[in-house]
């Protein structure tokens, strides 16, 4: 049977058949800043994570957005990131806002969560120095604005997070408690069901949410932020491998993998 399939596809007996996989799965995308913000805060990804945010903000955004990461294969410790966004699309870039970030990771492969970076806004010239340090299951983050103190989100902040397979807890507070009470959160549950409870120091209110994942690639969530904003969401990632014959590929390539993300918010 194997010899018959090899003859049909034009393969040799000792040539292995391959299925093409998109770059999304060839490279591991690690969100190194996930423990630097409260999950239900302004910059937090929520319980759904980065995949859900990219679907609505990057892919379905009515404006223009571009993000470029540059890093050397010989030395991956240094990374340059440029991020540009505009709400009026390519034809009207009057409100184009960009940010450039230089990130240094001492051990990017063994410990990607330990890093330091400096960011500069191209429009307002605001700059910020951030860093994160990981030791076993403990993450310590520091956010120190260099200028732009007048903005509401430019206050210094120190964070401490403890992450375990079924329990995660974090505290974020300014160096001086006179600026406000600390923000704290607790996440607990299993891969199929998670719950979060968070107290925010800015609005002095509670937020909570639940995430239910009955099957691989399917997630449904409910979030109540600041006890006044309700979010219901559904996210599904469908991965289908199908057999194709592409004349532009090698004879050993007999299939391709298609990825479809769908969400409702």
Protein model, in words:
Mean pLDDT is 80; it is low at 1-9. The chain has a 15-stranded mixed β-sheet. The chain is mainly β. The protein contains three helices and 15 strands. Helices cover 8% and strands 48% of the residues.
Strand order of the largest sheet: 1-15-14-13-12-11-10-9-8-7-6-5-4-3-2
Radius of gyration: 22 Å
Number of helix segments?
3
Largest β sheet strand count, sense and barrel closure:
15 strands, mixed
Low-confidence stretches: 1-9
Indicate the proportion of strand residues. Answer: over 45%
User: Which shape, going by the Cα principal axes?
Assistant: globular
Any chance you could write out the topology, listing elements then pairs?
Blueprint: H1 2-9, E1 18-20, H2 23-26, H3 50-59, E2 64-71, E3 78-86, E4 97-104, E5 115-121, E6 127-135, E7 138-145, E8 157-164, E9 167-173, E10 183-189, E11 193-200, E12 205-215, E13 218-225, E14 229-243, E15 253-264
Parallel strand pairs: 1-15
Antiparallel strand pairs: 2-3, 3-4, 4-5, 5-6, 6-7, 7-8, 8-9, 9-10, 10-11, 11-12, 12-13, 13-14, 14-15
Describe the structure using short key phrases:
single chain; 265 residues; mainly beta; 15 strands; 48% strand
Brief overview, please?
The protein has 265 residues and is mostly beta strands.
